[in-house]
Design brief:
By secondary structure, this protein is mainly alpha-helical. It has one domain. The chain has eight helices and two strands. It has a two-stranded antiparallel sheet with strand order 1-2.
Length: 188
Amino acid sequence: MAVVRGRERPRPAFWLITAVGAAATIVFASAQTGGFGQLHWSDLLLFGAVAAAAIGYAEGGLLARELGAWQTVSWALVLSAPLMVFLMSVSMSQQTPSGTPVQWAAFAYLGVVSMFLGFFAWYQGLAIGPMAQVGQVQLIQPVLSIGWAALLLGESVAWSTIVGGLAVIFCAGLAVRTRNSTPPPGPR
């Protein structure tokens, strides 16, 4: 979506590295689920969520070039607030939220630091661009989540997961290092 909306022109090396990374991800995911051909409705929903996120990140990156990163994030929250308040009310009417003080503190930290302030840096990076290369950094997030789960929560990690994670990091790193053949357009 960054290429389409941002009119970026990554070099063929970018596409090759991205294809290798995607193939490695598909092979890894297929090995975890028992082989190819095991497509489920939840897989299609996940693909739809990824496509929606790609559109949102591309549009947000373009807006951050014009408005600024913190303004883009803040306006997104203001515009989505009515729907979020409605959905929260429906959810709370079905089940009252509960949690320990530590859980509420963790929730507050994730909401304010990770999701609000963290997006300032993310959209600033997308605004600086090029978005197609900067967006590749997002591929490392699941690998880091698995790593932190192993370190902090004692989750077991198989060697295949480690190899798959290293392949993703390697391909994302190479893709980030490629250069566009034409610079992205500046602010309008």
